[in-house]
Structures are given as C-alpha cells and as structure tokens.
Amino acid sequence: MYASSRGKLIGKLADLIERDQEYLAALDALDNGKPYKSALVDVEFSVNVLKYYAGYCDKIHGSTVPSDGDFMTMTLKEPVGVVGQIIPWNYPLMLLAWKWAPALAAGCTVVLKPAEQTPLSALAVAALAKEAGFPKGVVNVVPGYGPTTGGALVKHPDVNKVAFTGSTEVGNKIMEEVGRSNLKRVSLELGGKSPLVIFNDIDVDKAVEIAYGACFANHGQNCCAGSRTYVQSGIYNEFVKKATQMAKQTKVGDPFAEDTDQGPQVNQEMLDKILRLIESGKKEGANLQTGGSRKGKEGYFVEPTVFSDVRDDMTIAREEIFGPVQSIFEFDTLEEVIKRANDTSYGLAAGVLTNDITTALAYAKSVRAGSVWVNCYDAISPQTPFGGFKQSGMGRELGEEGLKEYLELKTISIKV
Q1: Buried b (16+ CB within 10 A) or exposed e, 120-141
Q2: Which residues are catalytic?
Q3: Among residues 3, 223, 299, 301, which is most buried (max CB within 10 A)?
C-alpha cells in the first residue's frame, strides 16, 4: 500500500473512534472501573496519537551516505514485519493507540492481545478498523490470557517483533522466551516507582495539587505514577497536612457519576495487593495520615491513602503499589535527594517542583529516568517520547522515536 494511503486509513480510524467516543469510553469505564469522564480523556488522547502518526506515513525517509570509495550509498527504512502487541488493563484504549499507530504508520501488520481484564474496547476498535477499510489480516485482536495467548505471540517464529506494556516481572519472562525463539525485536514499557521531588521555594498549594494528580490519577493504576513524594524539610509539615486534606476530599464511588474522582480498582487481585502493601506500611512504621483500608463492603474500592515519615527501606518505598497510596518522604539537600531518588531498580519517570532553574536542571540531568517533568507531572503528548531506564524497560513509544521501533534500517551501496 502507498504510504499516503496508510495515512488516510489511520486518519479514518481516528475519525471513527472520535465518532464513537462515548460508547468506547463507557466500555473502558465498565471494564476497568475508571471514571467515565477520565475514560473520555483517554479516547481523546488516543485519537490525537492516531492522527499524529497518520501524518508521519509518507515522511519516513532514508538518506544518502557519503561513504568512502567509489560507491553511492543510500539507506532505506522498512517495516519490521508482523508485530505482536500486548497491552495492560490500566489504559485499555489509549495503549492500543500507542501500539497500533506507529506500527501501522511504518507499514507493519499487528496482532494485539488486550489484557484479559479489559478486552472490550480493543474488540470494538477492531470492528472500527474493519469499517475504516483496513485490508484483511493487517489488524488482528486476539483476546486471551498472558501465559497462553501472550506466550504464543512471544514464541511464534513468524512474529518479527513484540511490543509489551506491563509489569517488569512479565517483561523479564518475555526476554527469556524471545531468546529461546527467534530473537525477535522487543520493546518493553514496564513498571515504575517514580520520585516527585518538591523544594522549599515552591508554592505549597500548587505542589500539593500536582503531587495529588501524580499519585492518585487513574486510582494510582499508572506505571509512571509519582508514588514517592520527596518534600524538603522547610515545607514538609505544611505539605503533609494539606496533602492529607486533599486526599480526604476525593470522591470514591460509581464510575458513571459525574462527581466521582476514583472508581474501583480493576479486580480482587489488585485490591488484595494494595491492601497488603498498605498493611506493610503500617507495620514498618510509616505514619498513616488518612485512608488505609478498603472502602465499603462491595466492589474493589480502596480509601485514598497517605503515609508520611516513610523511609527508603520500607516495602511501600520499594515496591510498585499500583493503587491510590501516596508515600511522603522528607529530605534536606539536592545532593541527598538525587541519590535517594535513584536508589531504585526502576527508571520510568521523575518530577521536580522548584522555582530555581539551576536546581531543576541539576536534578533533571542527574535522575535516571526516561521522562523528567519540571513544575508539572504526566506531561505526555503524542510528540514526546516515553519509556524507561533500568528495569522500567527498553525502547520508546510516542514521537518520532516510537516510530523507529517498528522500522528496520537497510544500507544499499552501489559501485560507481
């Protein structure tokens, strides 16, 4: 297919998703438990990602190379081929768009396995791809469980690349299986335990608001959640007081109610994990400011929880909770907090709040993370590459870098 024709198809799919945005948002709210209003934002972002990559289709260029000798040398960028894509349950539709858009723009065919907890929007968008006129076999959605359906994709010798978003534990297993099969290309966006560092010179109310969004967005079910909140000692006590008050104001309940801020967690397994980690925080000596329990007796609801006086060696400081739990740490100096922020096996994201540009840049250059946000958090757009250092993964999604993950580079030299 001509590259410009691919772009038109992807653009048409984006228009159909936009047309059916209320239906698709309702599916994700039903499947995932996230508030309907949040799911609508996910749909909007998904449309923007598809439109961004639709414009890239006929702009994938090779180059000419001034090689030594009597040669004319050029490079071609070709699609990697058949791509197996495995997405998690926290952003079902949005992560589908992150996976499909660059792969289709590059000219690949895709086989997507949605999370077993949240397959509905993926199946609905597959139907829209058919309506848009994608050729048979280009877009495929295969629901199933990770060890079986996901495992089959990872092991299959005719799959040329696997793109996975999910836990670090599963990412490690994928790397092992790829090594045993055909050494297919791999991109992994994995777990995180991201630090948000807040300095004395920032407005406390502004800092509390940004830190709240960083930690509690999507019920805390966010791979880059700012779940380690480091606050400098000069504003520490005031910050803890105000952060606790903001968490207490969170409206937990029906995802389809307009005033709901937090719906249920995705399932019993995640509810149990979050409650187990909350209990570990209590037992290990963190100061519970608010929350700390299941909310109600029905559904998978967790009280928005805030711990203060958290130490770096506590379980809640080391493990990814993936729930509405904010851990607040106290620090004194920039040098100290950089060392503590980097003391983790993860490296997905980080944030810093300060009015001192020198401090902000020193932190941003020193912290080991794929994304660093200054005086904001979760500032993600279709144009900005996203991915992790260390055990938070390899490769990038979004932006031009995300497109490169689905391309092979071929060098052609012609004797003159």
Answers
A1: bbbebbbebbeebebeeebbbb
A2: 189, 223
A3: 223
